[in-house]
Amino acid sequence: MVIDSIKARRTVRDFTEDLVSNSALELMIEAATWAPNHRTTEPWRFIVLEKDGDMRKKVGQIVHDWTYENVKNPNSARRETSAKDAQQEILDAPAFIYVYSVEGRDDEMTRENYSATSCAVQNLMLAAQSLGIGVGWSTGKPCLAPIDTTIGAEPDWDIVGALYIGYPSDSEENKSERKRTPANEITIWS
Ligand SMILES: Cc1cc2nc3c(=O)[nH]c(=O)nc-3n(C[C@H](O)[C@H](O)[C@H](O)COP(=O)(O)O)c2cc1C
User: Fold this and answer.
1) Which is the closest atom of ligand 1 to the Cα of 10?
2) Domains delineated in the chain
3) Which residue's CA lies nearest to atom 23 of ligand 1?
4) Which of 42, 138, 150, 187 has the smallest CB count inside 10 Å?
5) 11 lines ligand 1 (CB under 6 A)
6) Percent of the chain with pLDDT strictly greater than 70
7) Ligand 1 neighbour 178 (Cβ under 6 A)
8) Interatomic CA distance for residues 161 and 141, integer angstroms
9) Is the pLDDT of residue 175 over 90?
């Protein structure tokens, strides 16, 4: 049942060192492209930063520098620790993908495109899960840092997220229970 997969999906940020094959990544991106999209704009764009590749290293450095400058902590040693942690997480992720949504003809289309790309990410995560692969979707430091031009994103693309991808480790964090409010508490039937 699809609902079982949906309920079993978890955000994962702790990975084993096993690499994720390109064919698995291709399958996940293909699943993403089957998301609903109004007017068939197919607004999603994916930028895969290869493990140990120069681009991954460049992005790690940009995120490091941005974090050091922007993290709200007066203590420079702590800022450096945060910066190094953010950089290392990017370098360590077995796979790392940026997802963008293209601008529409007007605000309404741009909004629709962004929604469709969010659906695409969910498809990607569910496909990953079916392969035993975990994904952590971030809109934090790797997206806030000025990486767009470096990685080749077009100026009119809007960033939707950075995806840390890999095989889940046995960590407590990965095993922690996530909860949801019962649907009837957030639904109005009228
Ligand atoms: C649009 C979006 C942005 C997110 N950004 C972050 C992020 O920057 N950092 C983070 O740790 N988790 C981020 N998450 C993951 C959520 O924190 C996570 O989905 C939530 O804790 C629920 O856990 P679950 O996905 O395992 O159900 C993001 C999720 C979404 C949908």
Assistant:
1) 26
2) 2-175 (3.40.109.10)
3) 11
4) 187
5) yes
6) 100
7) yes
8) 10
9) no
Q: How far apart are CA 36 and CA 42, in angstroms?
A: 9
Tell me the average pLDDT of the chain. 97
Q: In sequence order, what E strands does 34-121 have?
A: 44-48, 95-102
pLDDT at 81: 96
Ligand 1 atom closest to 118 (CA):
1
Instruction: Over range 25-49, report the average pLDDT.
Output: 98
Tokens of 79: 């800022």
Among 14, 114, 125, 139, the mutation site with the greatest number of ligand 1 atoms within 8 A of its Cβ is: 139
Q: Could you tell me the two tokens for 29?
A: 């991106």
- For residue 26 the two structure tokens come to 């291709």
- What angle in degrees, to the nearest 10, is found between the helix axes of 54-70 and 76-92? 150
